[in-house]
């Protein structure tokens, strides 16, 4: 770094320190005081820290908070205000993400005292817990009392010695620890592609959605760009909300909007990039012509967006962004129709999508995206029971491998293989496939989420939380990801974090019956069965026939010494492969070890086991049973797995 830049960087940190308590102090104000442009400051901070300006500011606030926790007697809420967080909860969330402990837990490690935790509504003290096969969450080590007596560093001095090391870890570690938002600190390198408006025949809606999806997917290839998942973005279809409100809700700095007008085989596509904080159109582009050349236009949109958001592209990424999936427009149309059907996830739509993918590949046998999509359709047919499981599993694997042969960077194909290997208990192969998928598509919320569930299944629970945290940041309004994130936090026994997410979920999803499966799981994991049952009953009032709720109601009732619902279900369920897991859960509720283990063993023989057998509290009453330990060995889960990371 040049001497002038070194001085400027020091001045930047001084200004951040001076204005820590001012939540409204903006990046533009920083630039004005320093006398530099926003782009220059972005480059300077990126070169020095590897972070965006907003992340660097947040890091400085967190470091200051940690210093105050160790050197003052201020309450945590007062410290939150002093370092520029508008709420205690906001500080606690980001502090925990950065350092692995809440502010109160961190202070207690240093001083041996505890701040009173915030009460979680209606949560009673947990009942005694038996041991569970879970990953132990690492805690920072402090020198033992004997070292202190011998004149070795005290806890306070130990803290000061540890600060430089911790700071280096923060600077070099994964940048996405800071993706979750805090008030007024949206990352500049963040964007949401909103649903494009469609003008034309209803039967051509698939084409408009496909164009939007193509741009979204291309932007998702950029590793250092936060791209909100289409699942969350699609909730703003036909919205009347102001861009600033959408930006706040999705925590992004930019929005990409578009409009497609179709007139026969001609198309007019208008796209504009909006900077949220200024409600300003940065640029707009219009394409008018036939459908054949529209993909070249979408590549231009992607590249110009990447340039505006200061994304440095490698030669390989640039090549990836300029490639078109196919030059055959008939193949492309059939592919888009198939993808449109595949999103519905009904038996009829998934089976129909295969026909579209077949036709696409007839037009262009080398169309890799269509082949990978057909592999996904085959996988869903097998996994959702829409057809013979083994037959369609084989087809899915063949198509995924062929897709990789044609394009070694096809993330979707690796994801399909990972899910299949997970079902088959091929844990190391699944891990490798997931990591390869994330290497080629690092911003895919669905892959991040699926990998988090895999990590939970094998007992690496805190890593599972890391990945579901990032997935939720990329897809904050997709309920399934929030549900699974709660499950990961609860399984990791990170109760305070789970409570905060549940409070958010209660605001967003209180009318969804399936949401209460997650809230019930929180109480079940703490053995507060009466409260757990209350949550399940809320869900059943909304969706009385939803199978997971019905099963869990029977399980919890049995634990409350009310066996009739479980027994009635056991009597009604056919004794076949489709219900082995269901019966194992019901017998677990009744705490009938012999029958529960018998059905788990039957399921294992057919590659049908509970997803989280190793860590779920449903089966913790079996953990000391030699037969259960033998079952874990049989499926490769008895010992911690040494996996690539």
TrEMBL record:
Query: Per UniProt, which keywords does this protein have?
Result: DNA-binding, Membrane, TPR repeat, Transcription, Transcription regulation, Transmembrane, Transmembrane helix
Region feature Disordered, mapped onto this chain: 117-146
List, alphabetically, the Pfam families matched.
Answer: HTH_18
Q: Where are the TPR repeats?
A: 411-444, 445-478
**In its keyword annotation, does this UniProt entry include GTP-binding?**
no
Q: Does the keyword Methyltransferase apply?
A: no
Checking InterPro entries in the record gives: Homeodomain-like_sf, HTH_AraC, HTH_AraC-typ_CS, TPR-like_helical_dom_sf, TPR_rpt
Recorded GO terms, molecular function?
Answer: DNA-binding transcription factor activity; sequence-specific DNA binding
Domain (HTH araC/xylS-type) ranges: 10-109
Where are the bilayer-spanning segments? Answer: 157-179
> What PANTHER family does this protein's entry cite?
ARAC-FAMILY TRANSCRIPTIONAL REGULATOR, HTH-TYPE TRANSCRIPTIONAL REGULATOR EXSA
This chain's protein is named HTH araC/xylS-type domain-containing protein
């Amino acid at each position: 770094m040049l001497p002038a830049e070194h001085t400027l960087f020091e001045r930047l940190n001084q200004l951040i320190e001076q204005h820590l308590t001012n939540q409204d102090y903006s990046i533009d104000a920083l630039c004005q005081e320093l006398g530099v442009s926003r782009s220059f400051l972005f480059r300077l901070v990126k070169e020095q820290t590897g972070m965006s300006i907003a992340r660097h500011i947040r890091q400085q606030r967190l470091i200051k908070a940690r210093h105050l926790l160790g050197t003052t007697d201020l309450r945590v809420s007062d410290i939150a205000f002093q370092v520029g967080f508008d709420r205690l909860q906001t500080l606690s969330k980001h502090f925990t993400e950065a350092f692995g402990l809440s502010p109160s837990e961190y202070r207690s490690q240093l001083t041996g005292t505890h701040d009173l935790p915030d009460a979680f509504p209606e949560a009673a003290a947990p009942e005694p817990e038996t041991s569970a096969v879970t990953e132990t969450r690492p805690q920072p080590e402090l020198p033992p009392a004997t070292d202190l007596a011998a004149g070795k560093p005290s806890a306070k001095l130990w803290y000061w010695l540890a600060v430089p090391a911790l700071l280096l870890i923060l600077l070099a570690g994964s940048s996405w620890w800071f993706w979750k938002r805090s008030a007024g600190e949206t990352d500049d390198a963040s964007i949401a592609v909103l649903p494009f408006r469609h003008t034309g025949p209803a039967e051509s809606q698939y084409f408009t959605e496909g164009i939007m999806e193509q741009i979204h997917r291309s932007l998702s290839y950029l590793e250092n760009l936060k791209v909100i998942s289409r699942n969350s973005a699609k909730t703003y279809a036909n919205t009347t909300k102001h861009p600033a409100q959408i930006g706040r809700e999705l925590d992004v700095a930019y929005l990409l909007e578009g409009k497609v007008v179709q007139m026969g085989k001609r198309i007019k596509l208008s796209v504009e990039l909006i900077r949220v904080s200024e409600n300003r159109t940065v640029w707009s582009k219009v394409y008018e012509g036939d459908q054949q050349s529209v993909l070249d236009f979408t590549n231009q949109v992607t590249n110009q967006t990447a340039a505006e958001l200061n994304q440095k592209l490698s030669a390989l990424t640039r090549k990836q962004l300029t490639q078109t999936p196919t030059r055959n427009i008939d193949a492309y149309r059939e592919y888009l129709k198939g993808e449109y059907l595949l999103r519905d996830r009904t038996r009829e739509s998934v089976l129909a999508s295969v026909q579209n993918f077949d036709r696409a590949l007839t037009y262009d046998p080398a169309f890799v995206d269509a082949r990978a999509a057909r592999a996904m359709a085959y996988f869903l047919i097998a996994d959702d029971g829409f057809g013979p499981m083994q037959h369609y599993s084989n087809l899915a694997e063949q198509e995924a491998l062929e897709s990789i042969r044609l394009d070694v960077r096809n993330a979707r194909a690796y994801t399909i293989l990972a899910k299949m290997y997970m079902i088959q208990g091929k844990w190391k192969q699944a891990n490798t496939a997931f990591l390869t998928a994330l290497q080629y598509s690092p911003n895919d919320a669905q892959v991040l989420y699926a990998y988090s569930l895999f990590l939970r299944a094998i007992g690496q629970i805190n890593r599972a939380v890391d990945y579901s945290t990032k997935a939720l940041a990329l897809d904050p309004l997709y309920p399934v990801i929030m549900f699974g994130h709660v499950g990961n936090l609860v399984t990791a026994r990170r109760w305070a974090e789970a409570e905060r997410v549940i409070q958010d979920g209660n605001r967003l999803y209180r009318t969804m019956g399936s949401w209460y499966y997650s809230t019930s799981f929180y109480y079940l994991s703490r053995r507060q069965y009466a409260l757990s049952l209350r949550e399940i009953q809320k869900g059943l009032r909304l969706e009385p026939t939803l199978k997971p709720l019905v099963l869990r109601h029977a399980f919890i009732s049995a634990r409350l010494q009310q066996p009739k619902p479980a027994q009635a279900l056991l009597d009604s369920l056919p004794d076949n492969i489709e219900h082995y897991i269901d019966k194992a859960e019901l017998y677990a509720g009744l705490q009938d070890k012999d029958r529960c283990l018998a059905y788990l063993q039957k399921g294992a023989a057919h590659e049908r086991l509970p997803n989280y057998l190793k860590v779920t509290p449903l089966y913790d009453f079996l953990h000391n049973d030699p037969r259960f330990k033998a079952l874990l060995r049989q499926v490769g889960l008895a010992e911690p797995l040494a996996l690539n990371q």
